[in-house]
């Protein structure tokens, strides 16, 4: 009775491994590789999982194909981090019709399917954008800001932009996407330096694009962190190193290392136990008071 999501489970009974189909969106950033490591370190055979892990190289059609393969294999649980928010209606309905519970990881979906997933674990991206905006309002109220956006249409991009712009949107003089990668962050910044010569700050939706921006700013003979300040999100080690080196000015942490919490959630889902609809991972912020020792101690 009920729809598939309300009587989830029927998955791993006691003893047999829980078969998890996991669609990871790509390996585009330091954050993503740390997230993949955390998932693989926790959803192990020793922990009772049989993990089928598929990387989509940031292509939605690859993720949809992977999800359909998981449905065909009748896995116990599907987990995925959607590269963009929309375009999942058909495959989410197919998973629901197949009675396979879906666990949403990291990024978010915008779908017409009712009750499309059992639980979501990830960051509050709007809160991350707000934290960055609050720092700018406090420390650089006259900054002319270029916003270097993540993958257009991804939950992380949409919500970080919303959170940031709600605080200091009137200081934003231009926006362009660098697709969360270092290389595209560099090319987008090269163009922005031409288009917005009066720019004094870049708000980048992740560290990798910010590191590309540093390359472009230095190639243009300017000093990142002073001529052009940089506010970033993620706090992977390379981003925090840029902060110690005074090339970044402020970094909002986005924590990828929630594989342990994910493993617990998946176990409960497979066993038909109640789980919270939402698990927001803990994360903080960093400024230039950070020490080299703190950076060296970071696990990723
Ligand atoms: C955020 C995650 C984002 C990171 C980027 O949870 O989806 O995707 O901020 C990554 O580094 O590419």
TrEMBL record:
The keyword Signal applies. It holds the Pfam family Peripla_BP_4. The keyword Signal applies. Residues 27-273 form the Periplasmic binding protein domain. Transmembrane segments: none annotated. It is found in: Cell envelope. InterPro entries: Peripla_BP_I, SBP_2_dom, TAT_signal. Keywords: Signal. Belongs to the bacterial solute-binding protein 2 family. PANTHER family: D-ALLOSE-BINDING PERIPLASMIC PROTEIN-RELATED (PTHR46847), GALACTOFURANOSE-BINDING PROTEIN YTFQ (PTHR46847:SF3). This is ABC transporter substrate-binding protein. It comes from Kineococcus gynurae.
